[in-house]
Description:
Elements: H1 8-15, E1 24-30, H2 33-36, H3 39-59, H4 65-84, E2 93-99, E3 104-110, E4 117-121, H5 127-132, E5 138-143, E6 148-154, E7 157-163, H6 176-207, E8 212-216, H7 219-228, H8 231-236, E9 237-241, H9 250-280, E10 286-288, H10 290-298, E11 302-308, E12 315-317, E13 324-325, E14 339-341, H11 344-354, E15 358-362, E16 374-378
Parallel strand pairs: 5-8, 8-9, 11-15
Antiparallel strand pairs: 1-2, 1-4, 2-3, 5-6, 6-7, 10-16, 11-16, 12-13, 12-14
Amino acid sequence: MLANDVTAERLRRLAEIVGAGRTVLSAFLDLDPREFGTGPARASAIRSLLREAERAVRDAEDLDHGERQALRAAVARLESWFRDAFSVDGARGLAIFVSEPHDLFEVVRQPVPTRQRVVVGKVPRIAPLARVGTPERWAVALASRAQGRLLRGSADGLVEVAELDDDVPGRHDQGGWSQSRYERSIDEEAHRHIRRVLDALAASHAQAPIDRLAIAAPEETYAFAVQRLEPPLRERLVGRIEADLFGAGPEQVLEAARPLVAARRRREERELLDRLDDALGAEGRAVAGLEAVLDALVQRRVATLLVADGFAAPGTLCQACGWLGTGGDRCPVDETPLERCEDIGERAVENAVRQAAVPRFLSQPDALAAHGGIAALLRF
């Protein structure tokens, strides 16, 4: 199973690290198995990353002596970790944050490849992790009149956690009152079995909450199960898998669930965009466009930041107070000279996480095209 160490709590904790100087090194290593699936290929990528880190420290402008020494120590610590402790360990990308003044050395495994780069700054560069997002906890319940299986995991892999089979007799065709009573008895046994599967599902949810639930079952069994699902699980239900998966392995079950989850995500994105349209029509409830969104972030008014996948735009940043803008030479708040950013969108995402706003990356084509690729729902 692929690894994903990203959590909302970790993102917020990293976002809150803000130093007086530029002493934080953020390094991203691509471990895409298509390119770096062998030991020699990974070793070459690591050497390239370390050279880039050394170059980033050497070429960084406006560093004082203490900042440069701290960053050199960070590079040395990074090199030592790669030599003594590095392991792929289910990751397809790594983000590593190092800062001696903050006593920071944190490795975050990602389930998807990442663009290899090194960034020197006052804060950890967490925007790529926010784009990966926290892992959703998936569950797939397989239920028939006599068989049951429960699998848990995420979009990166499932494991079987329970098998629940009962000896429920099949129906026969003899006719008469005895036949009717016999069939009712069998139906009751089948319903008891399905309730047993649902009880196991509810217990699993109580132990570790489920975010997405799919049920693979015949239509009649599915209808009975949905009626008896506990409300919290019914809210997480993405739909019915029609295929018979009792002989399938976890990978086949996962692939069968993917279309249902993808359809649910599309509906959720559409609902977010509908909320945005409604809120833009109500004064002060939403903003759209880069300049308006950055202004709302500076005012700490953003509740949900909506960003189109692939959005990037240049901008300016005040290192003294954190002001974000689309241009200018001096900060309008404190007159500090502004720093130019290749992608102010990344800084917007980091700022949103820092103030406990929720960044949402929309994958639907042209989802925010009318708004320049970025918008926000506001707290007030």
